[in-house]
Specification:
This protein is of the alpha+beta class. The chain has three helices and six strands; from the N terminus they run βββαββααβ. The strands form two sheets. It has a three-stranded antiparallel sheet, with no helix packed on it. Strands 4-5-6 form a three-stranded mixed sheet. A hairpin with a 5-residue loop joins strand 2 and strand 3. The longest helix has 23 residues. The N and C termini lie far apart (about 40 Å).
Length: about 140
């Protein structure tokens, strides 16, 4: 049985993604939500896709570091860019997500970056949670 390490609690109010607000129970997160201009909205706030991308990118950095540590790989520069795309199937009137995870690393070769990326995708909780549910593309580049 797995031990509970941490539980995040967040609440979204009012109109949700369309002018609502999202807050965490500890007050550290307090954001205005808005439909992006790219979707015909007013913009001026964040949206669930951005929040999901930020969370996944942050978690994935930790997963890369964990895998690198286990392989005794020293990382110089490290960034993970998560692109989360909202798709609308107009025939079924359903929405779905897809994602692209881009690892940018310095001080290592391409094969090592590819190996770290694949390993991190196996251990990252976000990657585990979405596996088989959404299309995910992985890309690594070295500087």
């Amino acid at each position: 049985m797995a031990e509970t390490t941490y539980t995040a609690v967040a609440t979204s109010t009012a109109e949700g993604r369309n002018g609502g607000r999202a807050t965490s129970d500890d007050g550290a997160l307090d954001v205005h939500l808005a439909v992006p201009k790219a979707l015909g909205g007013a913009g001026g706030g964040t949206n669930p896709e951005q929040l999901f991308a930020a969370g996944w990118a942050s978690c994935f950095v930790g997963a890369v570091r964990r895998v690198a540590s286990g392989k005794k790989v020293a990382l110089k520069d490290l960034a993970v860019i998560a692109e989360v795309t909202l798709h609308h199937d107009t025939n079924a009137d359903e929405f779905r997500l897809s994602a692209v995870l881009r690892l940018e690393a310095g001080g290592i070769d391409q094969q090592t970056a590819d190996d770290l990326l694949a390993g991190a995708h196996q251990v990252c909780p976000y990657s585990k949670s979405t596996r088989g549910n959404i299309d995910v593309s992985l890309h690594a580049t070295v500087a």
